[in-house]
Amino acid sequence: MEIENTGKEKDRFIITVTGRIDAVTAPEFETRLLDWINAGETRLIVDLGGLEYISSAGLRSILTIAKNLKTKQGKLALCSLRDTVKEVFEISGFSTIIPVCESVAAAVKEK
Amino acid sequence: MPEITSPARMAHLERLIQFVARHAETAHFPTQRIREIELAVEEILVNIFSYAYPDTTGDVSLTCRVEDDLRLVLEISDTGTPFNILNVPAPNVAAGIYERQVGGLGVFFVKKMADEAHYRRDGDRNILMLIFGRHRHGAEGQEHAGGVQE
What we know:
The structure holds two protein chains of two kinds. By secondary structure, chain A is α/β, with parallel strands linked by helices. Chain A has helices at residues 26-38, 56-71, 83-92, 104-109; strands at 2-9, 12-21, 43-54, 75-79, 100-101. Chain A has a five-stranded mixed beta sheet. In chain A, helix 1 runs parallel beside helix 2 (56-71). Chain A is globular. Chain B has helices at residues 13-26, 31-51, 105-113, and strands spanning 3-7, 59-67, 71-78, 116-122, 125-132. In chain B, 32% of the residues are buried. The model of chain B is unreliable at 140-147 (pLDDT under 50). Chains A and B meet through helix 2 and helix 3 of A and helix 2 and helix 3 of B.
């Protein structure tokens, strides 16, 4: 898994994740995002266009991050989900609790 | 039948998943189906790593074969605490963000991704057999009436 801050548009902090979020890499994913949140970035767009795989461990981390942002009146948007990742979000019902956008550009336009 | 045995620890997760994925790749399963199989295998293994050996360390063994390039038959076994993971209740996937629990989601994925899942206790071993066709049943959102035992 590779994770990096790839920009900022308006007040939206953009993060790109590639590779796999599994039980081994999910803790690092969660720690990196929580570090950015604690540094004051509370409006996050996470570009998952390069993410090929996610398991329940990764969903657990996303839920932790989303709940943390709620308490700070922040916002989390995920975008550009590929087929397998999208399927996992749909089966688990996560696509109904976490906003999912077609692209980073579409996520930036959301209020 | 090809077999791999490894200490039941997270450090071995990737190697064990790759053992299964290679069989599916050799049989030219579609890429998305291979990811689905990897997901089911990870969820089972992580559960074993976390709970099978509470007071000790132990091994996990995988055997895998593909029948006629059509069905991948996998057995995952451990010698830990007797436990039928298929009995774990399904999570409420309609719960809101605050009520949402992730517990139970792993086995829920296993049941969704596998065509069949069978647990048996054989002597001191927990044995979970999973069977995967080339495509996921119920991929259109329909629950299939196949052999997944609750």
